[in-house]
């Protein structure tokens, strides 16, 4: 597209099929929030939902709410509601614990399913916490080696040989927004007898994800970015149906037991994906995820993917038109199909620019060493917000030059 | 004491130094809630606190609240506030994740601190989830053996020999309420070069706990029982000061990294107890814990311990006076000093009795196979509630006989 005026952006907003979803979020006036890829905005219904759960279910129902309000079943119920957003089937997803903890579980499960193998291929592009967790698990296991791989999908795929138990990769690079070819990497892993584990933190609710079609083995991701579950919201965990009866994971708390209220000695994993649960469900946090899924239930995911791509394209187009001297260098793929829903640029004074933007109520992220990261959450961002943000960016950049 | 009338109970309530705390809880009318040892009652301030955090901090502050509202520091801040309740010093406690996950962390840390040893002594009385987690960790570690010990403190202590890396025990038995001698078992562990790990889920906020005085190495516990943090609230983790610079734990997520926002490759543990953090802090759940600690900050812990003992004594006295035929058999220690803040009785039709009590709005717990468990949360239970509960119990028992 070629957008040369704010009026064009207003036209795009007027015909946006997701405009109705924006009204479901509580956004501070006069803030241009390009950071929904870090912490998603607040759904309008969340506060009332939490109040109800706190007052009626906890306060009045007390212990009886574990059954009476279905608390115990929430991790599975919300998992089933989240499943369509990531191309999973009912019974393959749970919501609970954190992304790091869930990665620990599924990687341990994958290593258990490949007992003769002790190499884990790790994507050097991953969010660092994933690397720390892989390191933490492997340090426990004699002979376990982490093979960290820099580079594109082909390099990553080629690093998977017959010694590899599992590959762990981020679907969308948290810095540059580059999308990995989930199908290609997973297929390569399988051809070598390895399993594929994906972190979807930057893709769930943002771009198309087809876990079952791509035959992914395990996946994890957070719900506090594009899924709007709130700060530190519970994460999700996906395990493919074909592994559910054989996978074991070491964070074997009572929530994953076949008969948690039998209080028997000895762990017996629950049938199905419930065996990946560990902890007593965190009901207040889960209620906030539920409020968000109430919105997501009614969303056309194809429209989200389409709008995310257009917002990113617009951002790139406007920045490059405004700074033809290359003061801001695109660090993300130019083609929307190769990009997640954030756009990164490089500038030597990126940290200062992000601080100056914030002072003007344009909220984006700095990532070391020189990256400005702009998130394009399709549910509540308008095309006109991109226009206005680039206007402010232009003024701010003039001030630091 | 000898209590022969409801009027005596009313007198005791009139002079109760904790009567003011009861007014800080939202309790359903006409319910006699003897299950605060399972899910603590709702503080009156929790709903407003959550509303504020959701609306003002998340909704309006968005990403800036991680710093602006001190979100990132909450696990340490709340740990410092919780520390006095368990006899710990500032800088030894964090709040986050779950009891099971925290047990996994500290047991792995303990095994790391005792590299030549591969035996874990486990208390057969523990809440089953603790056993499942010990089993889950040990299954990962070649040569790791779990030695599960039945019996009293002496039996437990005697099972700790020079091959033992750590003993894991529950301070208060979740069924019978028996209190372990923390000092004796810990001291025996140390005399054999082993470490002591305690689960305080049924003692924090209920009875006297002196982790530092008793030289405990590690401890974990939940905040949703006597600490009123809400269903599935974040747990706490204690690590003694002397281990903080050497202990390592495998759930090494970015929250425990020395420089989480440096996004560097390679895990470097944070100095101090922060290295036991894993996940992005669960802000909504932590806000509920904070609302509860606002109450606990003003509580005289000696009064809590004293009242808990008196409520339990009263329950035993009234039940035994009412059922001199021994229809209900005391399953908890008779001496308050050997008992936590719940009292257990045996009856062959315990499950049915608990259901009938619930139908009459007396809420208590059944635990297999034949245990009725009555929780005596001192902050909001009245002496008269015990009287009334035993009245109803008497009617209900008459109906099933």
Q: State the low-pLDDT regions of chain A, or none.
A: none
Helix content of chain A: 25-40%
What series of H and E elements makes up the topology of chain A?
HHEEEHHHEHEHEHEHEEEHHEEHEEEH
How are strands sequenced across the largest beta sheet of chain A?
A: 4-10-9-8-7-5-6
Largest interface (CB within 8 Å) is between: A-B, 82 and 82 residues
Number of helices of chain A: 13
Cα distance spanning the termini of chain A: 29 Å
Radius of gyration of chain A: 22 Å
Major pleated sheet of chain A = 7 strands, mixed
Shape of chain A: globular
Query: What oligomeric arrangement do these chains adopt?
Result: homodimer
Strand content of chain A: 5-15%
SS content category of chain A: alpha/beta
Number of strands of chain A: 15
- What is the residue-averaged pLDDT of chain A? 96
